[in-house]
Amino acid sequence: MHDPMTQAFEVKQFWRRKSGQWGYKPPFVTVWHVDPETDGSDDSCGWSRPCLSKNQRDRINSIAGDEAREPWFQQYCGKRIESPTEAETLLRQAFMLVGKIFSKEHLCKPPVKPVTFQEASAWACAMLANPVDNFRGSLSFLPGWHSNNEKDNEHDRQYTAEKFFSCIGSFILRERRPWYRHPRWHFWHWKLQIHPLEQFKRWAFSRCADCGKGFKWGESPWTNSWNSDGPQWFKSERDVHHSDCSYRTSGAGVGNASRVQS
Fold first, then answer.
1. By CB neighbour count within 10 A (0-12 exposed, 13-18 middle, 19+ buried), where does 210 fall?
2. Residues 27 and 10 in one domain
3. Residue 8, exposed/middle/buried by CB under 10 A (0-12, 13-18, 19+)?
4. Based on the domain organization, do 40 and 70 belong to the same domain?
5. 205 Cα distance to chain centroid
6. Within 10 A of 130 (CB to CB), how many other CB atoms are there?
7. Do the domain assignments include residue 200?
């Protein structure tokens, strides 16, 4: 599990803080989207990519079973496919296949608009030319590399095919998702972080766990805890230290501490 909070918006100060030649505008309010984790993951709202419905997952499992029995998209035996032309052709076919089953109302609900040849071609080129995250390794199957089994078996092929087609399906839904349906607009999941208010609470109420003294305005203390509650009203934060105090008393030095931001 990761942190369920994702930054949705940031409102800058109207005035600049002096730094260098031009200065900069620090954030005044940060709006966080807190995922409710209803499906057990930290992205149940589909921030990075839309979640597939049960009906869509069932259809993907069906075509993944066909792929496992008679490999077509993952018949190349290697860590990743080497031919750009063959890769583009296969990935275009995969986009159109998943788009076809998603567009059939009697197969998938809710149905989506069919994927056109132009869309599939553009998406295939984009997801193959990306140097960081691409589908080159998904258009192949090497036992022991794409699975934990040194032998080629149907179960492992179906598992990798399900992951491949699920990524294709989520990509299609993400490209088709209207801007107003993005989870950043789930205002009922918002959490506001008002930075000047947090700085005031830290300056007024927080005390160093070592020396007992307060913190300067805007100072970021150090902590050895991953579960800090942040600045509080009328009481100090737990396990916060001045950087010098933390270095002298922790024994491990500042390198093993985490900085608490406001």
1. middle
2. yes
3. buried
4. no
5. 35
6. 11
7. no
Between 245 and 255, the more confident residue is 245
How does DSSP assign 2-66, residue by residue?
---EEEEEEEE-SSPBP-TTT-B--EEEEEEEE---TTSSS-TT-SSSPPPPHHHHHHHHHHHHH
- Cα separation, 31 vs 122, in Å, equals 34
Q: How many CA atoms lie within 13 Å of 161's alpha carbon, on the beta-carbon side?
A: 25
Helices 154-176 and 117-129, axial angle in degrees (round to 10): 110
- Could you give the CA distance from residue 201 to residue 183 in angstroms, rounded to a whole number? 30
Question: Would 201 be classed as within a structural domain?
Answer: no
> Residues 57-116: pLDDT tens digits?
999 999 999 999 999 999 999 999 989 999 999 999 999 999 999 887 665 666 788 899
Quote the domain boundaries for residue 78.
54-178
Residue with tokens 């993400």: 174
Domain assignment present for 199: no
Instruction: Say how far apart CA 132 and CA 104 lie, in whole Å.
Output: 33
State the Cα–Cα distance between residues 215 and 206, nearest whole angstrom. Answer: 7
Q: Are strands 258-259 and 222-223 parallel, antiparallel or unpaired?
A: antiparallel
**Burial annotation 67-88 (CB, 10 A radius, 16+ → b, else e):** bbeebebbebeeebbeeeeebb
How far is it, in rounded angstroms, from Cα 135 to Cα 170? Answer: 14
121-158: per-residue pLDDT in tens? Answer: 999 999 999 888 899 999 999 999 999 888 889 999 99
Same-domain pairing of 169 and 99: yes
95 and 164 housed in the same domain: yes
Residue 224 gets the label, from left (phi > 0), alpha (psi -120 to 50) or beta, of: alpha
Q: Are 26 and 144 in contact (CB under 8 A)?
A: no
One domain for residues 118 and 187: no
Question: Dihedrals φ, ψ of 145, to 5°?
Answer: -105, -50
